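Appendix B. Raw example, untouched.
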Amino acid sequence: MAIRFLRHVIGVGLLVAELLLGPRISVQAASPGMPHYPWDLRKQMPVHYRAYLKILPARLKRTAWFGRFDGTGMPVERVTVDSKVYFAGAICKPHDCADNYLTFLVTADGSRAVAMVKARETGSQIVELGNPTTAERQLMAKEFQD
């Protein structure tokens, strides 16, 4: 009886902790067929790249490190946010990363993209692109924390 009660208390405690910690987010290592860097997404996965381009304002599309991923890139990761699989990546302006940085999520099927960016082109403010959900926003916002 005492053991059953203890299991119940622990189970309830884990459930409460899960609810308090927020959305389920997991990160997986690179796998075959997945882009290694943002520019690989552009070259190898045109559907995904077009989803990304759809959320960029024209002034950002014309800037090489935004529009063509011609910048300093971080490895792309496969992440799961609220049971949806995404490719997550980040890129910055070469030799000026501190003030010019973008992080993005593209669904694994290439149907949707969201991003957060802080750059001179955005008035050095963090700007959301593509209407991210709360969980997507939380994941991307971590990239801007010191």
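End of appendix B.
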